[in-house]
Each structure stands twice: as structure tokens, then as C-alpha cells.
Amino acid sequence: MTGLQDRLTPAQVEEFGRELDEIRQRIVADLGAEDVDYIHNIIKTQRGLEILGRGLLFAGFFPPAWIAGVGALSLSKILDNMEIGHNVMHGQYDWTRDPALSSQKFEWDNVAPAENWRHSHNYIHHTYTNILDKDRDIGYGILRIDPAQKWHPYYLGNPVYATLLAILFEWGVMLHDLEVERVVKGERSFEENKPVLAKIWRKASRQIGKDYLLFPLLTGPMAPLTLLGNATANLTRNLWAFAIIFCGHFPADVESFTEEETEQETRGQWYLRQILGSANITGGKLFHIMSGNLSHQIEHHLFPDIPARRYPQIAGEVRAICEKYGLPYNTGPLHKQLFSVAKKIVKLALPGSAPAAPSPAPTTLKREKAVAA
């Protein structure tokens, strides 16, 4: 952990971790009816938008009705995936004992099976956040998104791959658990993928049947327009989810780590890695809700199982703690973070952007050593 230890002294890391633990403990102790009411209201809103959207598509021959229907259905899918599905499946509401809010039972409006996602996201990504060769969300097995990834001519297509991933994001998430890159390398067999493929087939079949067969057919002669409307709503959700997630993980100055740096990691060092490997997006209350509060990606990586509606309440405290210890708190408006991500994708498509040859001590952490508090 040489690189992380260079940031703070062992005593500082211990105190830093204790201060963040205190925030967590305070929020957990305060959870109650207000949190339950909030998520139930969001679910009601999402369901209302879906009913409204699908109802308006029955009048899709009238352009304003079609546009309004697609808009309502798009918002419904965004809320379902971001503020409801993502957060419920993180276990943020398991404490309620409500079966409808159970992380193990919830299924979302997405072709990616919830069970597969919980493994690749909740376990792998949140355990090994930004650790090269461990966190498979670094580039999703498709992109070169970190200069420590060895360049290959394949990556010349980085901008094209990123564009396709944005358009087809739910399908990219669905295929993520197949670990295709490991299959290509011979590290994972087809037999190992059979159970994953079975779950993918069942879930994707249901989603395709719902959006592209059942609901279009229900609208009779409007079926082609309804199919187009459903496809447009899925596209809108995909582009939005891609933008929010990439802006929380891959803007400039978000850092990566080696396995060696994270050996025998303490709780405080884990917290430190989450902060250095994440970024926030500024915006208003509605923006934060529509992002599933992943606009507070730093707070989410610190406390993934705390209801996301609490992140705006603690963001100021987390930022103050970072300032106290001389640590960065990466945040900015959506357009700034998105431009930073796009610039990185284009730059890393080309050779010559790899980090310098490694020194005896790990060098993946790029910021200057923090001064003693």
C-alpha cells in the first residue's frame, strides 16, 4: 500500500476512517419512516409515468401524444433503473424487511438479470473499485479508459466502442458477466458461462417480449409507432445511464490502483481509495433524483448500502473531511465531467499515453503527497 500510505500517515488514515465511520453510523441510526416514504413515492411516480407513457402511445398517430408518451416512458425507465433498481439492489432498503424492497428479490426494467448485476457490480466493482485487473468496470472489457491499460491497435476504435456502448448500454451491462475478455484469453470456459447465459436468455426474452412484442401489439395499427416509442425510451435511458455512470468513474484525475497497493488494506485505506477513484456531478434536486443520486458517486462508493437520498445530506461533511486531510474532492457540472470523459476516451485510443516505467514503489496514484493535517 505504499502509494496510498504516501497520502496520509498511518495515524491520519486511522482518524480519517473513524470520521467517515461516524457519518455512516449516524445515518444508519437515523433511518426510518421518512426514507421508506421517499422510496415508495418514487416507485409510485415511476409506475404512474409508465402507465401514462404507455397510454399516450395508444394515441401515437397524434405526434404530440407520441412525443409525450415517449418522454414519460423514458423518465419511468430512468427512475426504475437509477433511483429505484440500482439503489434497492444495493441493499439500501433491506433494513425495512419489505419484500418489495429486498435487494435479493428486486428485478428491474432492464435486459441485465438482477442476480448477475449484483455479482458484477455490488461485489466485484464495489470491493475492487478502480483496482486494475480486478475491477472489470474499468473499460467494461471493451474500452481503454486508464493509461495503465496496455495499448493495443484494437483501442484505435475507442471512440466507436464508447458510442456503441452508450447506445446499447443495457445490453453491455447484460453481457458484462460473461467476461468475454477472459474467455478470449482462455481464462474462462464456455461451461462456466452456461448458468450466466441461461439467466441472460430468460431475462432478455421477457424484456424483448414486453417492449417489442406485447405492448406494440396491444396498440393494434399503432404497433410500429409503439415499437419505435419503446425503442426510443430504452435508448434515452441507455444514454443517460452511460453519461451518469461514466462521469462518476472516469473523468480526469480519477485515479486507479495496483493490486500491490491494496494488499492488507485497512478500512481507512479502503475509504481513501473510494474517494480518489470517484467523481461527483453538480446539479439540482431533480437532477440528483434522476441520476439515482449517483451524481454523488463519491458518497455512494463510501457508503453503497446507505439510501442514496441521504448522499446530498452528507456531501458537505465528506468534502470538509477531504479538505481537512488535503485530499481531492472531484466534482463539476455534467458537461464538464462528460467532456473530460470523452477527451480521455479519444486520447487513450492512441499509443504513447501509457504511464512512465514503474519505479520501485507503486506510482499509479498521481496527486501530490498530502501535507500532514
UniProtKB/TrEMBL annotation:
Pfam family, one: FA_desaturase
Region spans: Disordered: 353-373
CDD domains: Delta6-FADS-like (cd03506)
InterPro entries: FA_desaturase_dom, Fatty_acid_desaturase
Ranges of residues in domain Fatty acid desaturase: 65-331
Protein name per UniProt: Acyl-CoA desaturase
